[in-house]
Design brief:
The chain is of the alpha/beta class. Helix content is 42%, strand content 22%. A 9-stranded mixed beta sheet has the order 7-8-6-5-4-3-2-1-9, sandwiched between helices. The longest helix is centred in the N-terminal third of the chain and has 20 residues.
Length: 380
């Protein structure tokens, strides 16, 4: 049985001002205990599903590359010692450009990493300082070049628009720089102000100066028009790739396929059940110590049929190919044109959805207002 696997490294050198992901700034002494606990979880999980074959691995965070090269190689070695892999398994690691060098990248390549995702956000030093990033634009360029020299040619960068003090020329320049560097995949996100972040506090005090709605709309229009013109196919709301460079792991999420999550706060989806490990790093480590080690599950639920069908629809609709009628029918033995007749008709009339030869998909306008469509599928 093929399976995707996600590993969470919940550490950062510094929390970015916009970030609400489960990550912490801790003493480096904790890293070794965490890696040991993670390897213990790997062994336990594999015993519980010996038939699993990993065809995608994604190491995310946090910032996985705050760990040493040796610690990262240890995690990958432990994974390969316990689980079966295909001969084409995609192995991605997220990295902050300020936490990698030639030596670390060479170790990652030797350990099996064949795809890297850099959290660049912008190549402008002024913008990077505004959002609390620890790297400079020059370090981002150097990291990308070093990754390619190490033999990791499948490179993604994350970029953001709608940032404080940002003008459309910044996102234009950043995308042009990425193209010149030969980046094969770009994830481009609009800023979302999340609760309990420094940006949320500044906004509540009236101190966060963001681009106007018109400026942000112009940035969005540029991104969605220019990248396809340059050969980067838009295949999901925020993701663009040259040919054969789509992220296979993320496609599993959007295609409602099973995945296993390891590490503190990691989520799994398998056999209609969603589980999550405890987000408390200390509890996670303690649960996996000693002879009586137990899986550090903090949450588990069996999805009811209505919720499962809704999730299948709106996850598939995130992709530009949309939701296929046959795939939905094979999974639920139900016709979504009947199940969601009113929703499909309503948003088709609003030009947010369109019927295709294989199912339905968001229109270009729908891609801009996807959350409005997605929420309509959720049960009351």
């Amino acid at each position: 049985m093929n399976l995707g696997l996600y590993i969470h490294i919940p550490f950062c050198r510094k929390k970015c001002f916009y970030c609400d992901f489960p990550s912490s700034v801790v003493s480096e002494a904790v890293y070794a205990d965490y890696v040991n606990a993670l390897c213990r979880e790997i062994a336990i999980r594999q015993k519980n599903m010996p038939e699993a074959v990993l065809d995608t691995v994604f190491i995310g965070g946090g910032t996985p590359t705050v760990l040493s090269a040796g610690q990262l190689a240890s995690i990958l070695g432990c994974l390969q010692a316990h689980f079966l892999f295909t001969n084409q398994t995609e192995i991605t690691i997220e990295a902050n450009p300020g936490t990698v060098n030639r030596e670390k990248l060479a170790v990652l390549k030797a350990a099996g990493v064949n795809r890297i995702s850099f959290g660049v956000q912008s190549f402008s030093g002024d913008i990077l300082r505004q959002i609390g990033r620890i790297h400079s634009g020059a370090e981002a360029v150097e990291a990308i070049m070093n990754a390619r020299e190490a033999g990791i040619s499948n490179i993604n960068i994350d970029l953001m628009y709608g940032l404080p003090a940002q003008h459309i020329t910044d996102i234009m320049d950043s995308i042009q720089k990425a193209i010149e560097l030969g980046v094969r995949h770009m994830s481009v996100y609009g800023l979302q102000i999340e609760e309990a972040t420094p940006f949320a506090r500044l906004e509540s005090q009236g101190l966060l100066q963001l681009p106007s709605e018109e400026e942000e709309a112009a940035m969005y229009e540029f991104v969605t028009r220019f990248l396809p013109e340059q050969g980067y196919q838009r295949y999901e709301i925020s993701n663009y790739a040259v040919q054969d460079a789509k992220c296979c792991h993320n496609l599993k999420y959007w295609h409602y396929q099973p995945y296993l999550g390891l590490g503190a706060a990691a989520h799994s989806f398998f056999d209609g059940r969603r589980t999550a490990n405890t987000a408390d790093i200390k509890k996670y480590i303690n649960a996996l110590q000693g002879q009586n080690a137990v899986l550090p599950v903090g949450f588990a639920e069996k999805l009811d049929r209505e919720t499962a069908m809704a999730e299948f629809m709106f996850l598939a609709l995130r992709t530009t190919e949309g939701c296929a009628w046959q795939a939905f029918y094979d999974y639920f033995h139900m016709d979504f044109f009947i199940k969601y007749k009113e929703i499909i008709e309503t948003f088709s009339q609003k030009k947010l959805l369109e019927v295709t030869a294989t199912g339905i998909r968001l229109t270009s306008l729908g891609m801009q207002y996807g959350n409005t469509v997605f929420s309509s599928f959720l049960p009351d």
